[in-house]
Amino acid sequence: MPGMPDWILITGSSRGIGAATAWRCAQAGWDVALNFARDAAAAQALAARIEQLGRRALVLQADVADEAQVAAMFERLDAAGGRLAGLVNNAGIVAPAGRLETMTTARWRRVFDVNVIGTLLCCQHAARRMSTRHGGAGGAIVNLSSRAAEFGSAGIYVDYAASKGAVDTLTKGLARELIGEGIRVNGVRPGIIETDIHADSGLDLHDAASTIPIQRLGRPEEIAEAIAWLLSDAASYTVGAMLDVAGGR
Ligand code: NAP
Question: What is the pLDDT of residues 96-119, one digit of tens each?
Fold first, then answer.
């Protein structure tokens, strides 16, 4: 619709890195679609703050691992009017830290369903809307990987690390598949960032800062900044990059 700002859809934006990214994107002038799984109140509170900036905010509940829910989410975004300019695949989960022998297949499947299938599903729906091959005007996708993809997270969560390795690979492949159709795909690999995700793993991060060259954990806003840059035209020649934002780790 002419005159309307473009939408950025950010999965898992009720808190943490996703919420910081939504706020940063709104400040940059985009309208923001906020996806979440469970915490409607947090997503709605963020939407209200974004609307106070004069931007539109659309709150979209969907489990990114659920094909029907993802399809319905994109249809609700279509119905809101305006163009999808960008997608941030940020929704991601860990599971309690432990060795491989202690893990269940149900846990592995859920980690891969959310982190990998969820990312693929959202990329698919976004490509159908943004690709010039389908009549779209192009756009940008940013996938959240992790430095764990490289380190492997031995004794902590090799399943999570492997799922992020898959995110790295699909990001590089999709970047080459879609750049000829106007879509730039890139990824960000955060180090250890201060969010609630670590409560789900049960990890004690008390001494973690001393293992990081910069000697502190990262803040969600520091990841949001990198994501916003990759979404923007300032990154117009950046395609298939995995940007490490990890304090030197
Ligand atoms: P977080 O604080 O745990 O927040 C996760 C967000 O994802 C929440 O908004 C949550 O919504 C949403 N979510 C969870 N499962 C979902 C699902 N199935 N469908 C839709 N939304 C879902 O996580 P974070 O630390 O900000 O991490 C964000 C991303 O960065 C993840 O991909 C993570 O792997 C990656 N990352 C984080 C770190 C770190 O140290 N924090 C490091 C490397 C990579 P609800 O609360 O409403 O369920």
Answer: 999 999 999 999 999 999 999 999
- The answer to whether 144 touches 128, Cβ cutoff 8 Å, is no
Closest protein CA for atom 7 of ligand 1 = 12
Whether the pLDDT of residue 9 is over 80: the answer is yes
Q: Which residues contact 159 (CB under 8 A, 6 or more apart)?
A: 95, 103, 107, 108, 111, 112
pLDDT tens sequence across 126-159: 999 999 999 999 999 999 999 999 999 999 999 9
What pLDDT does residue 1 have? 47
- Average pLDDT for residues 44-62, to the nearest whole number? 98
- The yes-or-no answer on residue 157 being catalytic is no
Taking only the tens place, the pLDDT of each residue in 87-98 is 999 999 999 999
Q: By alpha-carbon position, which residue is closest to atom 6 of ligand 1?
A: 12
Q: Are 112 and 170 in contact (CB under 8 A)?
A: no
C-alpha dist (Å) from residue 36 to 120, 135, 161, 213: 17, 28, 22, 33
Query: To test the ligand 1 pocket, which listed residue (90, 125, 147) has its Cβ within 8 A of the most ligand atoms?
Result: 90
Spell out the domain ranges in the chain: 6-245
Domain 6-245: give its CATH superfamily. Answer: NAD(P)-binding Rossmann-like Domain (3.40.50.720)
